[in-house]
Design brief:
Elements (H helix, E strand, L loop, with lengths): L6 E6 L2 E6 L3 H18 L1 E6 L2 E7 L18 E5 L2 E3 L1 H7 L2
Antiparallel strand pairs: 1-2, 1-3, 3-4, 4-5, 5-6
Length: about 100
């Protein structure tokens, strides 16, 4: 697990990207990039604030819901441990 304070790592098939994550603006940019790579490659791993999350495309046929807010997961899922979250709730965990 990546454990450098103030730095996030996005890993995807074929590479990885390190980005600053010291403030709210930095973390928003990190999530935008992680989502981009997840859509482009099918999945991406984001390591941020000593947490690891797998970002992947939601099953269009499945009826998955966010473990926190219970909204339907339509585009992307954020798996953190045994919980699957929507983008909004995943961002809240990174504060």
């Amino acid at each position: 697990m990546w454990n450098v304070s103030g730095v996030a790592r996005i890993s995807f098939p074929g590479g990885s990207l390190l980005m600053p994550s010291k403030n709210r603006y930095d973390r928003e940019l990190v999530f935008e990039q992680a989502e981009f790579y997840a859509r482009r490659h099918g999945a991406a791993t984001l390591e941020l604030s000593r947490r690891q999350m797998l970002i992947s495309a939601a099953d269009p046929q499945g009826a998955q819901t966010c473990a926190s807010c219970r909204d339907d997961l339509i585009r992307l899922t954020f798996a953190i441990g045994d919980r699957t979250l929507c983008a909004r709730c995943a961002r809240k965990t990174a504060r």
